[in-house]
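Dear support,

We are seeing what looks like truncated structure output for some complexes. This example has two components. We would appreciate it if you could run it in full and send us the complete token output so we can diff it against ours.
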Amino acid sequence: MTRRTQNNDARITPQELRRNGVRQVLEKIRRAGGYYVTNTERDLSQSDFKNRIMPHTQFLVAPQRNDAGFFSIEITGGASVHVDMLRKQMNPLEKLEVLSANMPDTLFQTLCRGVNLFGYRPYPENVIRLTVRSFARYVHVWRVFDFLNHVSNMIPVFEEVRESGAILEPSICFSTGPEHTDAYYVGKVGEILAVTGEDILLCIKNHGGLGTPKRIGALVRAIRERYPDLVIHYHGHNTDGADLGRIVAAVKNGAKIVDASDHAMTGFYGPPPLLTAVDILSDEGYEAAGLNRQAVIDASNILRGEREHYRDFESQFLGFDPTAQIHKLPGGATGSSFEQAVKGGFLHQMPNILQNELPRVHVELGNWWSVTPGSQILWTTAVNNVLKGARYRDANDDLKSLMLGRYGEFPFYRPSDSIYEAVFGKNWKAILEHEGGYQRIEDVDLAVERKVLEHRIGRAATDDELVLYLQHPNDAVDFFKFEAKYGKTWVLSPNIWFRKGGFGLGDKFEIPDAYGRLHAVEIGPKRRTKAGDAVTYLVIDHHPEPILTELEGEGVPAKKKISFTPKEIEALAKTGDVRSQIIGTVSEIPISEGEEVSAGQILIVLEAMKMLNNVIAEINGRVAEILVAPGDRVEVGDPLIVVRTE
Amino acid sequence: MKEKSIRKILIANRGEIALRILRTIKELGKGAVVVYEKPDSEAYYIRLADTAILIGEGPRCDYLNIERIIWAARKSGADAVHPGYGFLAENADFSEACEKAGLIFIGPPAGVIRDLGNKVVARRIAAQAGIDTIPGTGDLPRGEDGVAAALKFGLEHGYPLMLKASSGGGGRGIRKVVNEKDLLVQLPMARQETLSAFNDENIYVEKCVEAPRHVEIQILADRHGQIIHLGSRDCSIQRRHQKLLEIAPANLPVDVLEAMYAAAIKAARQAGYINAGTVEFLVDARTNAFWFMEMNTRLQVEHTVTEELTGVDIVREQIRVAEGQVLDIPRERVHLMGKAVQVRVNAEDPKNHFMPEGGKQVEVYQSPGGPGVRLDGVVYQGYRVPTEYDSLMVKMTIRGYNWEQTIQRLKQALNGFLIVGPATTVPFYLAICDEPDFLAERFDTGYLDAHPAVFQYAEQEREVAKLARLIAEIHARKINPFAY
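Here is the complete output from our reference environment:
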């Protein structure tokens, strides 16, 4: 309890933002003696725990974090909106509503991918505007970026954020290499300011933790020299272990806000420990404005006990990775890359992919910024190149869209002709001429979308549900169905949620439900009914209840899993037995049963790792059978379509 | 008449009413015998009796078998029989057979049951007592003459009309006809139906009072010429002529109620009534004019509201009357202050035409408690809803000082039920408790048709039950498939 709130007046709260507006808050930051700290818990969870830090943990530590006096806490955005529904089974907007009730004095921050919002592909403008308006009810600081640093791709978000009264924080994505000069970035800042005016925070988004402290210090200084009143927010990752140095250099050169997170949870790919940065800077004469040091420690003391529940989600490769400077993978994509490598069985190929193929692809494709969705394009292409043994073959649709200029011009240079030829074939020039150019996405009819959603869930949908559905339709519908069946499960502790191997007989849990009622659930025996159903007895609020569960275990023949190698799958495809090469979700089936297809025609579009992948006919024939439907999840080797040659 | 003390009573019934009667028998220190059919052998109430006798495989036929029941009474040494309601309760032959076998039948004499059981005779009795009856015909002659008589009645009194089975009861054997054409179509069907249902093809026609209120007066009569009333019950809330929710007393002006009490007593006297009975009236919801409808010669399902309101144990009085004792209920014990409501918690799905949930198991049963809450039921955790009998699980009777308080207590008590397994009528009653006309104590027999919204209640599953479902999945699968 030594250094309790050193400078409470310096703290910025949502009430103050509402009362005084953005301009006065920015002025307060400029006038503050030291600098502010943002807790990027969202990035910590995404980078080091495969996005799995559960709401239960966030609620547990909410009072301490609220007392800590951060400038803001980044608690939503990035991949989290998707993962909230997909793996945490919580409504991302409800999460914000409940959390903000528990952290009323702290600004909430999001990371928004411009036209790609919280997803991986551009959204129609009316969806973008609706989504921003919806999230802006809870989010006070909007960090916005475009993976090609195209300012025009961010404008609809900019406009809606300003309209909502929240703080706008446009980003310049940062990378290294000969093209990435101070002059280039200062020019970008000028482009942004020309659109937004001066009432913004500017983020230097160092998503890969690239460059040395010296490099970051120089960049901050260069921007400050040209725009002395601009409030700079430095964001970095600690992949190489050097982010503390970059933070110190940024602050010393005039950055007013820096990103870090709770020391008890920090890993290798996300933000560095917040308190360490604060203590180093303190000795250098820079004080963290509004920060309650003890509350930061209290928060970590709680989190330390929680960390064990998330052990399964920490990286398969422990340790810092200075080769991040080579592969430039963003910290936020590292966790999911490893997850995919484990599921796809190519974990052993990771050093080769990361240190050789990925940097090579990166340079070949234009040395722009490896950040969503660009990082996925680079990563998927590099993985394909290595696993298939042939480079740029069967390129995914997103790479094609990028090379056709649909997301905007290449910022520095375009890939070589030979790569265009490998991707599009001999006719690549005609294709480029015919199909190339920026692609504007048409608005969707929101009334029609709502009808489709309501048909799929079989009831009226709320406005929030429509917003979530527009982000990730299949996963949102799955989540709504989950919630109807299992309730608001975010009240469950990770000890229950992530439990493997079942519970012990007599294990007892006290569970407050989402409506504030306290319940007791005790594990009873498992039995089989006369009808052969598996039944688990739970003692719910002191009354035993039998609950039917999925059949498992002895006596029941488990679905036999046949595993195929990619070569076998390819060989089967040549016989007309078309199987999935990847783990993914069926996105589209452009053909129908009975249709004649020819070799090279698209049979099915699968979505995996946020990328669209075409399944192509290897032979001419007639579609005899379609074995999957849009929305189905498929595993490697699962049959998709049968093509028969007459 | 000489008093004859009863020592041991056989209950010729099943389910909640058997238990209800049994409780009073035990309270009086007498012996209690229950009979049961095979499907009821797991019922817990039969274990509370001094003697339980299996009378057959059932279902239903053995509870209707007079010989078997007389046999069981002899075997057990019972000296009296209580018939409950339904089954043989209004069967004059049964009453007669008991008398012949030297058993005291706890109910009216056979002749009275026979007279009042025939609706045409009952209407004549009422008319002789000077009570208004709904205009109607006597038993229609067979064939074309009957059709002609019905058509003539329709011309004189106007449509709609009711076709009623003379031996009907409990809401069965009633058809509404809206015009002549309809009458010609329905008359033969009604005759056929009544023949198969009651083994008596006699039917008659009555003028139909649209959306009337259904109000009844409970009376008690001893063998010494004393007849008293225990106030009124409003049974208007019905579906297809089956009562769902009953209220005591009816919300009517004092002078109307007084007139009904007097009429009920007169009717009972005219019929030579002895024991507990109920005189049913139809009341015009606008004018409060009332007509004699019928008289039930048994203990009613809804007798509990009268008991809660008056503090009188009707079963106890039935037994005392059967012993030949003089009714000695002091006036001050028959207070009619406050309100009582009874709801029938059935294992039925109100949203699916009250389809019984027969065969389902009650996985969890928790019942409410607190001031003014009375439960008469046979349900327990593990109870199987019978497919062989009715789906009544428990009757809940709520007593309060006034309507508002009673409804608040009713709501709270309904919320206190936790029944997992079959669908029940509980959420349906809760929806009624929030309906403005009901809250204003305004309802008639058209209530449910006029308020279809009360069927639109949300299916509210307990949040903890949903969470438990996931915990069970995580436990059984050994991993949470939604987390990885």
